Amino acid sequence: MSSSSKRVFPPLYASTGDQDKDRLAFFHVLERLKTQKRTGWVDHGIPGAESISDHMYRMAVLAMMCTDQMLDVSKCVMMALVHDLAEAQVGDITPREGISKAEKRRLEEEAMHNFMHEMLHDSPAAQRMEALWKEYEAGETPEARFVKDLDRFEMASQALEYEKANPTKDLQTFFDSSIPNIRHEEVRGWGESLLKERNAS
∠ at Cα 198 (196, 199), nearest 5°? Predict the structure, then answer.
């Protein structure tokens, strides 16, 4: 499938040179996260599918539930809130769209650079958000790995909720690609409880 026939990206923002106007442009672009639906659910015909920001919000609250004293929980909360920020520009790209991982990465890096430099003028806040996003993408720190596990668990939680609301839907693929890959002990325990709930229903 040709990506050009499926997904059209909005034009990148060009700075006006006015920091107030450019900052407001960033605030407004965040609305796209509230209105864009998560592609996997749309592809499976889920009515009223969650938005990208719906997903990130619950991840942030899940991060607050962490009892692991070795993790910087505040950093995890902030990371959860920015980890899909680039999707405000590129959308929720999935493998079936024919866009390679390398191209997806390039598009997302381009989006983040545009947000942080053209809109936010490389401010301290921009530097903080960009650093958190890059840390998550690299997946090397304990916090980044933990937030990735939250990403997996949150998706599985949403899959169970959609199965309950839509009894004819079998969303097994979302469980197969998430729960077995969770590494953090606490989140793994949440996943096991979720599967028990699913099996009992």
Answer: 65
Long-range contacts of 130-138 (CB under 8 A, 24+ apart): 132/75, 132/78, 132/79, 132/82, 132/83, 133/79, 133/82, 133/83, 133/85, 133/86, 135/79, 136/79, 136/82, 136/83, 137/105, 137/108
Kindly state the tokens that stand for 125.
């806040």
How far, rounded to the nearest angstrom, does the alpha carbon of residue 75 sit from its chain's CA centroid?
16
Q: What length does the chain have?
A: 201
**pLDDT tens digit string along 99-120?**
899 999 999 999 999 999 999 9
Calculate Rg over the CA atoms of the chain: 18
Separation between Cα atoms, residue 140 and residue 175, nearest integer Å = 24
As a whole number of angstroms, the distance between CA 187 and CA 193 comes to: 10
